[in-house]
Amino acid sequence: MSVVGIDFGNLNTVVAVARNRGIDVITNEVSNRATPTLVSFGDRQRWLGESAKTQEVSNFKNTVSTFKRLLGRPASDPELQTIEKKFINARLSEGQDGEAAVTVRYVNEEHTFSGTQLAAMFFGKVKEFTAAEINLPVTDAVISVPGWYTDHQRRALLDACNIAGINCLRLMNELTASALGYGITKLDLPDTTLDANAKPRNVVFVDMGHSNFQVSVVSFVKGKLVVKGTAYDRNLGGRDLDELICQHFIKEFDAKYKMDIVSNPRAVFRLRAQCEKVKKILSANAVTLLNVESLLDDKDVSAKVSREEFESWAAPLVARIQEPLRVALSLAKLTPDEIHSVEVVGGSTRVPCVKDAIAKVFGGTLDGENKLSYTLNQDEAIARGCALQCAILSPVFKVRDFSISDWNGYPVEVAWDASFNTKGTDAALEVFPVANTQPSSKNLTFYRAFKPEEADAKEVGYTITARYTDKAIAERYYPAAQTTTICEWQLSGIKKYDESGRADIRIKARLDANGIVNIENPFQQVVVEKTVPVPAAASAKSSTSSLDSAADAAAPESPATPTQTQKVVEKHPLTLKLKYATGHASDAIATWQSAEGDMAAADRLVIDTAEKRNALEEYVYYARDKLDTTWREFCPEDARTQFQNELRAMEDWLYTEEGEEATKSVYAEKLAALKKQGDPIMARFRESEDRPIAERDFKATATALRLRAESEDVAHIEAAELGKVTKEVNDKLAWLNDKIAKQNETPKHAPLVITAAEIRSAEQALQWTCNPILSKPKPKPVVPEPAAAAPADGAAADADGPEDSKQQGSEESTKESMDVDE
């Protein structure tokens, strides 16, 4: 069973696995620890991850990035047009069910792919290189999500996993994963089992990644973490800093070089890529140079940039960092002084002005004392935490006990039709408020009134809706364009069991570990009166205890068993049918799974065809070179000339339109035809190298066997047997010398008289014949029996003496041991 953690990032994705008693970050097919989160589409195939990165400039409009930001979002979301559009090269469009999607040109046709489909494609690539690294199929994984992901986005990501064939054990909030990696490895956390009054360690985790800024306040004790407060700015990340630099130089270069960069999206993309490099260099250097060759109209551009200039441009953005930090502290009801340390993760936290802004919230400065801590790997902490969570959930690994209490970021309410209320006008109840523990479940009771028009109905229904409250939009920055409705269910099977005029309905609302809301286990509770037997103990107490003489008479017929009326609670299961959910329908997922399988097979065929074409091209160059060098003597002149002509013709064919468009089977057939001519030549050449070695080894073995047969160590073996060994060795040597002589007289290009394999086979047969004879052990020496001891009285004993003495002694002993009565 694979234990995999995936940090699904907007720019790069990192994968970690639990193995060898630890957590390892694995490398992809080009040995990089971070894989670009990209999908590129071509005329014949798709490119995913690293291969898509190489297509990003040349296949600009059909390479899709930032699709993590499209998951579960409606195409009508204004943020897609105002923010995301400038970071996505492909054309934004509307997919199935109104989900945000992109339109690209694939296999010479326009195709529209939703964010869910794009994520599924990429996860397929993640599965591939992960399985290749760990030599196990990847089935189970824990995947990270931003804490601000809504139910809609979380369900969309689970659908993507389903399409890709990944069993997602849990969607884990990114900073909760980082906190797990921190807490499970810290051995100095307060231990409440030793000191009940020990104060928890409060740590703030800050993540500024490529596209968003997240803060989480976490309380630690030994073996447990509790998330106390979170806050986010989902549109503040490293890419926004890159964009600041890019927009500055667009204006400068337009004025300096008289070019209209904005009119050319490819030029803007290339300039933004260089601005990202500038940002990284300025994190460690005070000044750097921006250079872009042939940016537009074959013009090279360059400019000097200082860190001071960059920080002045970035000041408005950096100022936004402090608000989420203050909100998270406020929700956690903690002050900066109560914070033990601030763990920073995410690549963009390396920017000095960002670190300085974080430090100031906690009363420090970047150049002076501060609470910033860098004990976690900024790029890999989330993936490692996810792998640890997967190991905890896996039965294969034994992990130190560690409890995780996560935090609900958006308030959730359950709503119903108020017209069915038995009293009051309430139509909703907040079930999971902000800061509610995640996962958790709550039992809810509804009293549904029966309306007069339902008097004759055998069964009635009831609609229940789970949704985010208005406070989610006002206080938690819930995406305004996204519907607040999570799910809608229809309860059926409600019956009128009594004359109370209402139905007592019970359900369980669950906020699971993935942050997804569900309703389950609905039933109608009815209280009825039933006649039940009186318990035996009660009956005994109520009977008389007096006995009279009549008790000895015949007993009359026993009276009827005493009974009593008792209220009994009955539970009648109800049918729960899902009317609306934010995820995709099962038939849509099945269709996408089939399409993904077809596209993956097409990709595999293109790759296999290219490999077979490369093999054919490689063999052409290899054989042509060998025919002029090492193979020259092993091929007749006319055959060599003909083979060279065929190789030359094959090379020319490969670069024709027919050769470029040929199928895998055609390449395989042509390669086999060439090898049919080249393999015998290559075999004769290799035999010329291998045969002398085999001959040398054979003669060494034969000589060693003959010397053994003549040595004193085998003097105990019969001469006839040793003669067999000598004869076998001489016969085999004579056979070998004869064959070698004939081979030496034969031209090198002629068929072989003897091969190295035949010589080695003969050597093995010689050993099997001779070794059993020469390995016979020497006979054991005869050990003489010890001489008999002389008699005690010194008398001489004849040959029968000892036996007679024994017999006589026995008789005397018998006589002495018997009493004879005369």
UniProtKB/TrEMBL annotation:
PROSITE patterns referenced in this protein's UniProt entry, alphabetically: HSP70_3
Annotated keywords: ATP-binding, Nucleotide-binding
Domain of life of the source: Eukaryota
Positions of region (Disordered): 542-568, 774-822
Bias (Low complexity) ranges: 542-566, 785-799
Composition bias, Basic and acidic residues: 812-822
Stored InterPro entries: ATPase_NBD, Heat_shock_70_CS, HSP70_C_sf, HSP70_peptide-bd_sf, Hsp_70_fam
CC annotations in GO: cytosol; nucleus
SUPFAM superfamilies in the record: Actin-like ATPase domain, Heat shock protein 70kD (HSP70), C-terminal subdomain
Transmembrane segments: none
GO molecular function: ATP binding; ATP-dependent protein folding chaperone
UniProt-recorded name of the protein: Heat shock protein 70
Species annotation: Caulochytrium protostelioides
